[in-house]
Amino acid sequence: MLFDVVCLAALLPLALSASVAVTDIQGPAFVSPYSGKKFASGFWIAGTANGDTRVSNGLYVYTTSTTVLAKVAVGYNITLSGTVSEYRSSSDPFDLYGTELESPTSIVVNSQNNTITPVVIGKDRIPPTQLLSALDVGADGYLSVPNGASNLTTINATLVPATYGIDFWESLEGQLVTVPGPIVVDFPDYYGDIWVHGDWPVPGKNSRGGLTMINGTNGLPTGNPGMILIGDPLDGTKNPSVSVGTNLSDISGPIIFQYGYFYLLPTTAPTVKATPTTTIPASNITSSTSDCTLTLGDYNIDNFGPKATQLPAVATHIAKYLNTPDLVFLQEIQDNSGETDDGTVSANTTLSNLVAAISAAGGAFTYSYIDIDPINDQDGGVPGGNIRQAYLWNPQKISLVPGSPVGGSLDATAVATDSNGDLTLTYNPGRIDPANAAWNASRKPLVAAWETPKGNRFFTVNLQLTAKLDSTTLEANPRPPINAFVDQRTSQVEVISTFVNTILEKDSSASIIVGGDCNEYLYTRSVFAPLISVLTDIDSLAGIPVEERYTYIYDGQTEQLDHLFVSSSIASRPVAAQHIHVNNWATSLATRASDHDPTVAQLQVC
Ligand SMILES: *[C@@H]1O[C@H](CO)[C@@H](O)[C@H](O)[C@H]1NC(C)=O
Ligand SMILES: *[C@@H]1O[C@H](CO)[C@@H](O)[C@H](O)[C@H]1NC(C)=O
Ligand SMILES: *[C@@H]1O[C@H](CO)[C@@H](O)[C@H](O)[C@H]1NC(C)=O
Ligand SMILES: *[C@@H]1O[C@H](CO)[C@@H](O)[C@H](O)[C@H]1NC(C)=O
Ligand SMILES: *[C@@H]1O[C@H](CO)[C@@H](O)[C@H](O)[C@H]1NC(C)=O
Ligand SMILES: *[C@@H]1O[C@H](CO)[C@@H](O)[C@H](O)[C@H]1NC(C)=O
Ligand SMILES: *[C@@H]1O[C@H](CO)[C@@H](O)[C@H](O)[C@H]1NC(C)=O
Ligand SMILES: *[C@@H]1O[C@H](CO)[C@@H](O)[C@H](O)[C@H]1NC(C)=O
Ligand SMILES: *[C@@H]1O[C@H](CO)[C@@H](O)[C@H](O)[C@H]1NC(C)=O
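Above: inputs. Below: predicted complex with 2-acetamido-2-deoxy-beta-D-glucopyranose.
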């Protein structure tokens, strides 16, 4: 026997080949119930537990030898030899390693028909509820900067499974476990894998059944370590089609680390026990005839081109679920040639198609629209798409403050005082400091000055900050996990905050609304600090319960990337806001119109 159970508690590559007796180290081994047909070639074995919850008594045995595989079957008590290896399922340098026994030989079957008792999660072992790793140091927990400051495998700390989620799942690597009462918390991924939690305490449970990122009782954002990804069933069955809130039958199988995550590989596919309602409530916020009362929508409509397949759905969402807000902040409007990279930058066809579709979907009026074309291929996003923000508004309700030209791609707008002594913009709408390095390969914020029929003015900033593409998974080796482009988002928020302050310096009671797709959580406080010092997040003003503050789902967590912030004058008046889950409550990924949910709010702008 050539393996050492101690290695199961470590997170580093081992080049270990000490010859040790199975009874000394892991106890006589059972063949697990799984023959590794899907995951790879091999099988799992379970030794006698040694009473130390840091140490798994299960292990994956890798072999492609049909001779070896023919010798073992579920419930066999065997003795075997092999070499311990720490391996990676992918070439991703940020992945943790999996522990396995390779090149098994000398297989002796001692007995048959033994039973293997799974570890029942939630009963025998309870996942921690908040922290992912002891190495996630900093004021914002796992969202702290700097990130990628250390690697689990380099530090090689002893596992603390009761406190840290990664340690918890690592301590069960190779172990046969059962997840009782699984509830799905995300749509299946591309491979049909499903995030679930089972019947154990989890923070951030929302009304749909998902798990929202919230502050834990320790005041740090929860990493939701109680979730586990269910991989491809080992017996060749297929996981069912599910959505957020689907209840499944109990799931049993071994825990492994692969492709950036801890997985449970089910011995067989679970069945659906209950599905949540397909009815998605529309907003009850409606437009008002009052001069000062503004309804506001905010929606990232996901790479929306002139021929977008999601056009009818998005139009219905705005007309019927958001009740045609007086003003809509849109993000990800593509140019008139969509993703064809032909130098086209104008998006007037894309926007006029959308406006017509909203009317056709029963919208109460015909929207006016405006945007500013980017310089071709300079604002990031899908190549050739030239995505940008745009405004739709009800021309009977509000209008752009007249008297200033519409800004071009490179024009920096500034706050100015008009001949009546009222605040306006030098370009309306205009872009904020478009030459600033913070906007490299990213969308420039679209600023506008508006007035009501009675001449009351307010300002808006519609933004889409740089995305998190290339971030590591929450269960990756670098700690805190790498939050890609966090420094750029921080710089972008600083530039926007500086601009907002130029308005407030001229009029501290100015009505200002800033928001859109921030591609960041408010729990990453380092990013939002300069904005939060002058503006207030409307979710808190509207009193939305923290579990219900979400517009996005990623890797099993429901979370909020889309935010609206208002100046103190608006914050001092009544505020209503709702996230309308037209997409994240969909019955399948394929039926979503966008990866983001829209938000609707009602504000008093004067
Ligand atoms: C990692 O930790 C394990 C368990 O404590 C220990 O046996 C091993 O020597 C350590 N390896 C390194 C490289 O630090
Ligand atoms: C496997 O069989 C051996 C005897 O051959 C026995 O000593 C050992 O306890 C068995 N293992 C388990 C986990 O039951
Ligand atoms: C194992 O169980 C099967 C079915 O229950 C039975 O047919 C077989 O004889 C048993 N084998 C041994 C060695 O007891
Ligand atoms: C962590 O590991 C990655 C991948 O090997 C490496 O690029 C990075 O420099 C390491 N970080 C630290 C702090 O050692
Ligand atoms: C989360 O906790 C931080 C630190 O105490 C705090 O600043 C922040 O406002 C909290 N967020 C929410 C939504 O309660
Ligand atoms: C799923 O199970 C949970 C826990 O028992 C329950 O609260 C929830 O209502 C169930 N969901 C459905 C759709 O039945
Ligand atoms: C909308 O419904 C919520 C409850 O879901 C209620 O608290 C709120 O008062 C309603 N708002 C309006 C404007 O009717
Ligand atoms: C788009 O703008 C171009 C150039 O100003 C104009 O010729 C065209 O009619 C516009 N298309 C629509 C749908 O408004
Ligand atoms: C601008 O962003 C692109 C794409 O992320 C990157 O390749 C380039 O290095 C950046 N340039 C500067 C000056 O930061």
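The first strand starts at residue 29 and ends at 31.
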